[in-house]
Amino acid sequence: MNKYSATPVQFTNGSTVGIDLGTTYSTLAQVNDEGEPIPIPNEDDDIETASLILLAESGHVIVGPNRNRAAIEKPENVVERIKRHMGAAEFKRTFDGHEITPEFISALILKKLKQDSEQKIGTIANAVITVPYYFNDTRRKATQDAGQIAGLNVIDIINEPTAATLTYAWHRGELGVAHSPDFKKRRVLIYDLGGGTFDSTLVEYTPTHFHVLATDGDVELGGVDWNERILNYICDEFKEKYGLDPRESAQMVQVLRNDCDLAKMELTQRTDVVITFRYEGKAITIRLTRDKFNELTADLLQRTIDTTDFVIEQAQLKFSDLDAIVLVGGSTLMPQVRERIKEHTGVVPYIHPDLDPHTAVARGAAIHAAILEARYHAGDLRFGDRVKKLLAGIRQEDVNSHGLGIVAMDPRTKKAVNHIMIPRNTTLPFEVTQMFQTNKENQTRVSVQVLEGDAPDPVACSLLGKCTITNLPEHLKKGSPVDVTYSFDKNGRISVNAQEKSSGQAAVIEIERRGSLTDQQVNSFTQLASEYTVE
Question: Is 20 known to be catalytic?
Answer without folding.
Answer: yes
